[in-house]
Design goal:
Length: 155
């Protein structure tokens, strides 16, 4: 869960920056910094971002340090892997789709309920069009009967 890695990174950054707990008075986690640095508490991403800003340390760099500690690898290797993942995500259209979910710095609300899996729906429709039964679709696709039934009767 990165608790120990976050503790080590925050402790190190604070020490290297020469910042005492009192220097972080603006930070809402200020009173629990000691427990955080001991690995006794978890921290939310929002609080971690606030703490990184108070320490004048880039949040992505902080996360890369923590992940690199967890994986016992240099932070540069962590960042290269992350960069490759982002490039692959982008090549698949992920960045374009991602941008549709945030408008004017706010999350676009989606419709209620669980979003449908379009690839599963298409696979069920294809089998239905080919004359297979719902039971055949369950067996071939490895989906739950209720899922196949829902996609089977969907327009």
């Amino acid at each position: 869960m990165l608790t120990d890695e976050v503790a080590a990174a925050i402790r190190t950054i604070r020490t290297k920056r020469g910042a005492g707990y009192e220097d972080l008075a603006d930070v809402s986690v200020q009173r629990s910094i000691s427990a955080l640095e001991q690995g006794d508490v978890n921290i939310s991403l929002a609080r971690l971002a606030e703490l990184a800003q108070a320490l004048d340390f880039d949040l992505v760099a902080l996360l890369a340090l923590c992940v690199s500690l967890q994986n016992s690898e240099p932070p540069e290797a962590t960042l290269r892997r992350a960069s490759a993942e982002i490039a692959s995500f982008s090549a698949l259209g992920g960045i374009t789709l991602l941008k549709t979910h945030i408008v004017d710095n706010k999350l676009v609300q989606r419709s209620r309920g669980k979003p449908s899996n379009t690839s599963n729906a298409a696979a069920v429709k294809k089998l239905k069009d080919e004359g297979y039964s719902q039971t055949d679709a369950v067996k071939q696709l490895g989906l739950a009967k209720s899922t196949v039934h829902r996609y089977w009767h969907k327009d």
